[in-house]
Amino acid sequence: LQLPSTGSPPPPLFLPTDPPMVWLLAKCWVRSSDFQLHELQSHLLRGHLMAEVIAVATMRCLPSIHPIFKLIIPHLRYTLEINVRARTGLVSDMGVFDQVVSTGGGGHVELLKRAGGFLTYSSFCPPDDLADRGLLGVKSSFYAQDALRLWEIIFRYVEGIVSLHYKTDVAVKDDPELQTWCREITEIGLQGGQDRGFPVSLQSRDQVCHFVTMCIFTCTGQHSSVHLGQLDWYAWVPNAPCTMRLPPPTTKDATLETVMATLPNFHQASLQMSITWQLGRRQPIMVAVGQHEEEYFSGPEPKAVLKKFREELAALDKEIENRNAKLDMPYEYLRPSLVENSVAI
């Protein structure tokens, strides 16, 4: 639970064979640490703030008649609003993190800054990310299976729209608005993202498809995969304590009293439960991925592409439903019918 330090004895190694309360306390510490990383790095930074970078660049650089604007705008709905709420209520001075989360009081900002160095282009693209993490073909990784399928469906949808508006790679290179949009995301929004593999220009139709698919997948499937599980895993506070009130144990004599004195107090626990419920519950008004009612494209060709997209999403949803029926614990966080069309909550 602690890093070794020079001049101090090595920290104890906690094992399943330790007394039950000792092992329980050690697991609570690991889960509390995971809570911080999940909410700040995986959820806020890689979900909400990345979507905001895409949203702001899209509003600044692409006119509303641009095909990429029309393609991506449904997936940016309410993102700026929910992020303003997060800034003013969750990670602000005396916000929820400062009140009840162990990284509050400045640690959360420092963690976000450090995590920025891990925002690589490949990590936002499941085919590359899963290969880098050795998860391709791992049957027990349902995230890997579903993320890859959803990415491929989104890619085909993007490819269908892009091919209608860009007939050659030269047409891509010669689109100044598209190039400015890409450069704005990488250089301005991501503050030098080219050093982490993000492109500063798009040179071919395939590059456009890959980049736009990354944007849409980030705002839909990737955010939902880290958002939807909050109620399942965090409403039971000992499973992921928002804070720990005593230092990590250095001995193996913990009792139930030690565990209770370490876990969040009543106020902290109740706030964690209420916010988890508000954010993690199934929202009464929710637009599933690809199901937006607004029609941004006119003409039969793009409408046919969208229709095919929705058919493929429905097929994937049914496949996941059939697989989950055979599992003791279903994995539903990437079911298209549950994945939100944008970062809206």
Automatic annotation (TrEMBL):
<keyword id="KW-0443">Lipid metabolism</keyword>
<feature type="binding site">
    <location>
        <position position="223"/>
    </location>
    <ligand>
        <name>Fe cation</name>
    </ligand>
</feature>
<keyword id="KW-0479">Metal-binding</keyword>
<dbReference type="GO" id="GO:0005506">
    <property type="term" value="F:iron ion binding"/>
</dbReference>
<dbReference type="GO" id="GO:0006690">
    <property type="term" value="P:icosanoid metabolic process"/>
</dbReference>
<dbReference type="GO" id="GO:0034440">
    <property type="term" value="P:lipid oxidation"/>
</dbReference>
<keyword id="KW-0560">Oxidoreductase</keyword>
<dbReference type="GO" id="GO:0016702">
    <property type="term" value="F:oxidoreductase activity, acting on single donors with incorporation of molecular oxygen, incorporation of two atoms of oxygen"/>
</dbReference>
<feature type="binding site">
    <location>
        <position position="345"/>
    </location>
    <ligand>
        <name>Fe cation</name>
    </ligand>
</feature>
<feature type="binding site">
    <location>
        <position position="48"/>
    </location>
    <ligand>
        <name>Fe cation</name>
    </ligand>
</feature>
<dbReference type="InterPro" id="IPR013819">
    <property type="entry name" value="LipOase_C"/>
</dbReference>
<dbReference type="GO" id="GO:0005737">
    <property type="term" value="C:cytoplasm"/>
</dbReference>
<dbReference type="InterPro" id="IPR001885">
    <property type="entry name" value="LipOase_mml"/>
</dbReference>
<feature type="binding site">
    <location>
        <position position="43"/>
    </location>
    <ligand>
        <name>Fe cation</name>
    </ligand>
</feature>
<feature type="domain" description="Lipoxygenase">
    <location>
        <begin position="1"/>
        <end position="345"/>
    </location>
</feature>
<keyword id="KW-0963">Cytoplasm</keyword>
<dbReference type="InterPro" id="IPR000907">
    <property type="entry name" value="LipOase"/>
</dbReference>
<comment type="pathway">
    <text>Lipid metabolism.</text>
</comment>
<dbReference type="InterPro" id="IPR020833">
    <property type="entry name" value="LipOase_Fe_BS"/>
</dbReference>
<comment type="similarity">
    <text>Belongs to the lipoxygenase family.</text>
</comment>
<dbReference type="InterPro" id="IPR020834">
    <property type="entry name" value="LipOase_CS"/>
</dbReference>
<dbReference type="Pfam" id="PF00305">
    <property type="entry name" value="Lipoxygenase"/>
</dbReference>
<dbReference type="InterPro" id="IPR036226">
    <property type="entry name" value="LipOase_C_sf"/>
</dbReference>
<keyword id="KW-0223">Dioxygenase</keyword>
<keyword id="KW-0408">Iron</keyword>
<dbReference type="GO" id="GO:0001676">
    <property type="term" value="P:long-chain fatty acid metabolic process"/>
</dbReference>
<protein>
    <recommendedName>
        <fullName>Lipoxygenase domain-containing protein</fullName>
    </recommendedName>
</protein>
